[in-house]
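cache lookup: miss for this entity combination. No prior model stored, computing from scratch. Input as submitted by user K.M.:
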Amino acid sequence: MSDNQDDNKIRELFAGIKQADDRQAPAFHAVEEKSQPRPFLAELRYGRLAAAVLIGAGLVAVLSHEWSAKSSIALKPVSPPASKIDSSTEVVPNSIETWQSPTAFLLSEPDEPDPNGGSPASFPATQPRPRQST
Amino acid sequence: MHDHWLRQQLEAHHRESFGWAMACCGRDPQRAEDVLQRTYLKVLEGKARYDAGAKFKTWLFAVIRNTARDEKRRELLRHIGLMRYEAHAGAIRNADGDSAGESLDRSHVRAVFVEALAKLPARQRETMQLVFYHDMSLSEAAGVMGVSLGSARTHYDRGKQALRTLLRSRGIE
């Protein structure tokens, strides 16, 4: 059998299959009707996307809130409980204008009044001791 | 792409598309219809887009082929293509539904041919189908199958040789 004859024979056999397929082929409109894009499903798809975005945003908000709460606790200075603070020893901070160094009196002359409001400094006068010869 | 134009094209190629879907689905008409339905949905929803780079028919056949392959992957454990081919060939042999005018002989030859086709490797079978059933050139067949022209030519030559041998062994000259 030549190549051409082979081709013709195969073509003929395929034509037989084609005839059988044509008899079984569904009508175009029947298939097309089932293939209509369904807007409800498309909406559902977009709805799912929107829900996912909302859930994500909510999750981020909750997590960031928790994180900021944790970090504010970490940064807060630790102070003793209020019940343990002795009100008598509580130091009331002075204004910066009236503040005096607690050691300022060391700089004052004996005749000058104590800048802290005390009596003039009264350090015992120191006399140089005579050198003892041995 | 205009929806109306797409519908017109799909309708114009409907019969051929069904024949190609049959070839891609082990000659199971129900599966072929499902595949065609999914393909049309892809096309009409714009999931598969025709960019006019190839003939519409070539592009559509490639979409059908890919859809059928996806389906086959899903049903891998349910059916094996060769078994379906053979089962269908048997069904053809014993069919009551054939047209009354068709001789038993013709029906038998067709069943043997379907069986022989089923024995070919998939690529060879596809090439034979595209060239002899759908009158495509080798270049177009290569486009549908996503292979090079040289590769399509090899599948064509080997397929024809194998088919000739198989048919002779079954007494069809």
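stored under new cache key. The interface with chain B takes residues 1, 6-7, 9-11, 13-14, 16-18, 20-26, 28, 31-32, 34-37 of chain A (CB under 8 Å).
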